[in-house]
Amino acid sequence: MKVLETDRLILRWLTPDDAEFILELLNEPAWIRFIGDKGVRTLENAKNYIVTGPMKMYSQMGFGLYMAELKEGSTPIGMCGLIKRDSLEDVDIGFAFLSKYQNKGYGYESASATLRYGHEQLALKRILAITSLDNHASSRLLEKIGMDYEGTIYLDMEELKLFASI
């Protein structure tokens, strides 16, 4: 199901058919470094990640992480979406892109559209974002889309930067 459209991208719900892409994305060095190793090593692991993560959140919350595809050719390039974690009071925005599609403005394009969607369509008053302390590129992107740095927090025994949009 298509959720958002930008100038160059379509953001849509993930399905088990996206397992090959998810397997590649979750094993990117930047994903493992900044987001964490999810232990997804097979197509079956990737399908399970999609079903128990994004698809479960769609059914429970009506939103989740979305596949980001290029409009031209429907090429999958990353994920961007909204997540409700038990460990955070408010919904947060998350994004990740294959390394070959980074630094081309896709992160900004998808994250700014997702943030607007969260506020305008889902009526979320406050949207958060978290990044590792050394993920400077994501911190810059979050500030560029209008989020404010609020300090650091501890989640799962890791110190993270906290950003918010009100």
From TrEMBL:
Note the InterPro entries from the entry: Acyl_CoA_acyltransferase, GNAT_dom, N-acetyltransferase
Ranges for domain N-acetyltransferase come to: 9-165
Protein origin, superkingdom: Bacteria
Q: Does the keyword Methyltransferase apply?
A: no
Return the Pfam families for the record.
Acetyltransf_3
Q: Name one GO molecular function term.
A: acyltransferase activity, transferring groups other than amino-acyl groups
Alphabetized UniProt keyword annotations: Transferase
Q: What is this protein called?
A: RimJ/RimL family protein N-acetyltransferase
The source organism is Cytobacillus firmus
The organism's taxonomy opens as: Bacteria, Bacillati, Bacillota, Bacilli, Bacillales
